[in-house]
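can u do me a favor
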């Protein structure tokens, strides 16, 4: 492993070169290039790398980024060699790294691990479906099954999936959103009445100030950088709040322009507030206190459109500034400067991601952002509003389609009316509750539509125990991952088509639809010949599981929906608010916007009050956040570099402040074990070993590691209040020199 100085800017020609290299080395260059040409083009493939929207106008120039190219390279990888699964036992595969597992090519045939078996063996599709149906029907109660969804799943597959689970009789539908933007949904529903953001891409052309909190778009949403650059060049101010100085937010070179290749790029952040981990409530309160003092308050808006102002103000006035400064780690003078800027602006957009959502008080932190926007009347008008930046490319659409463990009564009534069955009313398990239920033996079958449940969830050792206690685990996947190797008594892998693949059913070529981070629904159609004739699409797999399980006890015509996705879309139109005329509207170039009442100004904004969180630690403890490197997509490891943080060929690193390192008698390159301390009834300790210390520009008392390597340290019971999201950005740890 090698550590170098982080660069001063992000992207530029180096980003494009890296993208092309990954296509040339990891994927099939010809196939991959063909997919790239239509990535994010109207009528083309919706990029699976993030949920940032494409421009609404004409899209003839390339609309992909380094991350998109890596995702395509990964998906267009050649097939597994046929002897692979007889050569490697499950135990042997478990010894391999996540990186290696992902490099073994596309899965090409259904596989079965029988009880007591050591190797996966081929199984026919019909036997696989038969087995799933038999096992599900043998359960004592439908609530003993868990149906997980990852956010790459299309609207069509997601709609069928939730319909099937409910016809089977359960709302046990955990999804990746439970670990991601659940806190945003909860916070926004309570304060503005919709669990999604309110802005459109066009709003960035009108904003005066753009706030970016707890997000690293240079790596995770590179296409957002072009939007920010344009806003900046037009005169918008950008304020960043982040414990790390992320080069992508400091300076950006647009790889799609000549100046981005040869020039110095565009300076982005006007203010970079290097807040301490979870110091956001303190920082926002400090800024709002100063705004109040400056008289930067839109009283007309507050009177007409909000409630809770008086309580909000009296709480703000009672906060002690010294405590605020201590917790935020930002000087009052700096807060005042930002307050001046905000007090003079009434078109403010606030963007945020995992740095805010994965904390115990995440819902409160996000509601402080809403408070700030409401103070300036900055919701429900052009150039202003909330922008939770979604991760998975269709995670927002999956929720719109009903993937939710706590569905509304109205939605269930609709399903009942359209499909003539009695839907389960009891709320189901979210991700954390599903882990506990499996661990307690109450959930016995686990089926995942995509994702990598074992590695994405907290507390890896406990989650592994939970999965191993089940009767059966089933994974619908494109490529091999660790969740295929930590299984129930028996296990199935069902290989599916990816976004880039053509989807041919008996009624002809099919397409699917997705919803981006700003509520635009549009079609996505793959263009590549699948690597194996034995792959099935996700909608087809869900239909077959439903047919094999419900055997006639369903008014939905699963076979017809499998053959012609227009029929699925007709049901979506009938059941999902805002989707009438769905089949016609998704065929329009660029798709259509789902309704969003606050965007149009129809809402009552609620001011809320949140105390500063309690950050007391023991003397030797640090707060650790688990973050993404530049070479990964969640649990998929594309490579071992994190170029913007100067890490080469390594992932088991811990970024620490130089003073915290020397105080512990350690030095750069020291190898340490990390133990997390979780104080529930008793103290619980969890340890991972052999991480390399990297001195870094990070606030004192804070440190960072990569997800998923550090997930064993995240306690399953350490969750956000109300949204139940694991606190992956706030883990209390100690580090000790490794003895091994
Ligand atoms: N290439 C690539 N693209 C991706 C993904 C990927 O893995 N790779 N994942 C996708 C998914 S599912 C998602 S959800 C998004 C994730 O996108 P991000 O949220 O950008 O991802 P993280 O790496 O988790 O980054 C969190 C950022 O928050 C900061 N942070 C951590 N704690 C705090 C805090 O307490 N306060 C503040 N203010 N900041 C904090 C970190 O320093 C870091 O910059 O990206 C999506 N896009
Ligand atoms: N410590 C820590 N933990 C975290 C986070 C964190 O920041 N820190 N972030 C959380 C977040 S934001 C999220 S969203 C979750 C992600 O959780 P998941 O969505 O469960 O995980 P992914 O790594 O995105 O899933 C990757 C797998 O999906 C499968 N796959 C890829 N494409 C397709 C497809 O088209 N169809 C199907 N059926 N399968 C496909 C492949 O087999 C691949 O191995 O992780 C969460 N976990
Ligand atoms: Mo996510």
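np, heres the sequence
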């Amino acid at each position: 492993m090698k550590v170098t100085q982080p660069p001063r800017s992000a992207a530029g020609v180096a980003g494009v070169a890296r993208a092309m290299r990954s296509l040339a080395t990891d994927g099939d260059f010809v196939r991959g290039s063909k997919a790239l040409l239509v990535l994010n083009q109207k009528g083309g493939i919706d990029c699976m790398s993030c949920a940032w929207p494409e421009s609404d106008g004409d899209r003839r120039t390339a609309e992909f980024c380094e991350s998109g190219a890596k995702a395509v390279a990964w998906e267009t990888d050649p097939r597994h060699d046929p002897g692979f699964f007889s050569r490697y036992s499950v135990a042997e595969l478990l010894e391999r790294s996540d990186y290696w597992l992902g490099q073994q090519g596309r899965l090409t045939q259904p596989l079965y691990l029988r009880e007591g078996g050591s190797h996966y063996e081929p199984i026919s599709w019909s036997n696989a479906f038969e087995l799933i149906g038999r096992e599900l029907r043998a359960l004592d109660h439908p609530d003993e099954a868990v149906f997980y969804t990852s956010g790459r799943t299309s609207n069509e597959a997601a709609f069928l999936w939730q319909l099937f689970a409910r016809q089977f009789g359960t709302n046990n539908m955990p999804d990746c959103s439970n670990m991601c933007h659940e806190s945003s949904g909860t916070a926004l529903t309570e304060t503005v009445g919709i669990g999604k953001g309110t802005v459109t891409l066009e709003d960035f052309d009108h904003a005066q100030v753009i706030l970016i909190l707890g997000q690293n778009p240079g790596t995770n949403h590179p296409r957002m950088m072009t939007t920010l650059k344009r806003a900046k060049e037009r005169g918008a101010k950008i304020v960043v709040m982040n414990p790390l100085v992320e080069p992508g937010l400091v300076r950006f070179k647009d790889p799609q322009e000549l100046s981005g290749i040869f020039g110095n790029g565009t300076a982005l952040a006007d203010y970079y507030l290097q807040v301490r981990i979870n110091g956001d409530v303190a920082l926002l309160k400090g800024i709002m206190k100063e705004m109040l003092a400056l008289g930067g308050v839109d009283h007309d808006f507050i009177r007409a459109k909000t409630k809770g102002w008086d309580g909000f103000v009296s709480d703000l006035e009672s906060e002690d500034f010294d405590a605020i400064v201590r917790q935020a780690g930002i000087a009052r003078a700096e807060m005042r400067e930002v307050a001046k800027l905000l007090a003079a602006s009434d078109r403010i957009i606030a963007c945020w991601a995992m740095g805010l959502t994965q904390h115990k008080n995440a819902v409160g932190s996000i509601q402080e952002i809403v408070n700030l926007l409401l103070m300036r009347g900055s919701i429900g008008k052009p150039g202003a509003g909330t922008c939770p930046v979604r991760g998975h490319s269709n995670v927002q659409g999956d929720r719109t389609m009903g993937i939710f463990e706590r569905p509304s009564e109205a939605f269930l009534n609709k399903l009942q009316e359209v499909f003539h069955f009695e839907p389960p009313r009891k709320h189901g398990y979210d991700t954390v509750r599903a882990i506990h239920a499996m661990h307690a033996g109450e959930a016995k079958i686990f089926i995942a539509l995509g994702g990598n449940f074992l590695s994405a969830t907290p507390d890896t050792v406990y989650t592994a125990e939970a999965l191993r206690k089940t009767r059966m685990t089933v994974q619908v996947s494109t490529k091999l991952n660790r969740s295929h190797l930590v299984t129930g008594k028996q296990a199935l892998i069902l290989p599916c088509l990816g976004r880039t693949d053509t989807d041919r059913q008996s009624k002809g070529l099919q397409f699917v639809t997705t919803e981006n981070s700003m509520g635009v629904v549009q079609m996505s159609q793959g263009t590549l010949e699948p690597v194996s004739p034995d792959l099935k699409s996700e909608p087809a797999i869900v239909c077959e599981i439903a047919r094999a399980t419900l055997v006639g006890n369903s008014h939905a015509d699963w076979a017809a929906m499998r053959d012609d996705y227009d029929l699925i879309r007709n049901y979506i139109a009938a059941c999902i608010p805002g989707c009438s005329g769905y089949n016609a509207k998704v065929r329009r170039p660029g798709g259509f916007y789902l309704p969003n009442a606050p965007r149009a100004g129809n809402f009552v904004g609620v001011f809320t009050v949140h105390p500063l969180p309690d950050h007391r630690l023991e003397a030797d403890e640090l707060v650790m956040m688990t973050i993404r490197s530049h070479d990964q997509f969640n649990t998929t490891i594309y490579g071992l570099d994190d170029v913007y943080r100067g890490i080469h060929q390594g992932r088991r690193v811990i970024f620490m402040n130089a003073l915290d390192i020397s105080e512990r008698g350690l030095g750069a390159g020291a190898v340490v074990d990390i133990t997390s301390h979780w104080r529930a009834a008793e103290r619980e300790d969890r340890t991972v070993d052999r991480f390399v210390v990297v001195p870094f520009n990070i606030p004192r008392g804070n440190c960072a590691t990569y997800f998923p390597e550090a997930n064993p340290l995240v306690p399953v019971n350490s969750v956000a209040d109300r949204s139940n999201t694991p606190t992956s950005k706030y883990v209390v740890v100690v580090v000790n020199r490794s003895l091994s």
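The mean pLDDT is 94. hope that helps!!
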